[in-house]
Amino acid sequence: MHAREWIHGVYLGVVMLVVSATAAGQTGSVQTFVLDNVTGIDARNAKLEPAKFQGKKSVRLTTDARDGGLAILHGSDLQDGTIEADLAVKTTTPPGVRMPGFTGIAFRARPDGSEFQMFYLRPKNALSDDQGMRNHSVQYVSEPGFGWYRLRREWPFVYESYADIQPDTWTHLKIEVAGRTARIFLNGSTKPSLVVDGLKSSMLHGAVGLWGYAREESYFANVRITPAAAQPVKNGADAAGEWIVRYASDAGPFEGSMKLTRDGSKVTGTWSGALGENKAISGTWRDGYVELAFPADWPEGRDGAPGPAAAFLEGWFDDSSAKGRMRVERRADGRWAAEPKVH
Asked: In terms of domains, do 209 and 262 share one?
């Protein structure tokens, strides 16, 4: 059973958490939210209360909303930098009812919670004997539009991974955000548990929030937000033009070219190169983010059956370069990068 965190990209459970700068202990550009009380909370579709869990003072978030609750830290703001927090989850389902626990930290969120990105943890999945389930321990999502179900179906195991975590135990989380990349580190490790190179949202800065799910108790303490120099990325770069593409896949490298035109959000064009000649491309564009597809020809001499195969690309165009993720269905998966063709 999978929890239905977000249905069709519609966010239902919102909690507003207000922490004054003085009470939060803000020092310079670093923001620290101790979260040992609930003064100034405007709770909707959820309940927030001060609590002590495993000896640590914290805020407990519970909700009956079927799609979870988000608590925005008022006054918080981050473009690039780090977010650190202590969090824990205790499930409240009866014995024998599967509930892996769902709790996380949102970033670059709109103050009303209508748009945000998030890493969240599912600690009981890490204890499973099913390796596929173990690989669902830590997850990235971007709402609206890129919930766990869509990301898992379209890009299996790219936006989630295994992590050595436990339920009913405090986990220290650190998120590093830089441009269109984010990494999550757990319990002081210097190795990220998950790397997302190509964040889905066009929001380049925003608030930080706490997220919990129904049928559990989520605990949060000691949120610290440390900004860093902003990366030189911006939204709105056009995909139109002719591009040289290099595809570094798990089935070996490929090269090709794309000729693209754009009419509003609609992208059309052709692919020529290692995966076929003059293959029709169709797709969409949003603030520089593209999702493209074309009918590829898988070549002889490679692993996998030769012949027709659908190819898909997603990623960002940023000024004079582009990059993202690409897969050839049932044949290859990897990353692509492009630069304008010089005539």
From this structure: no
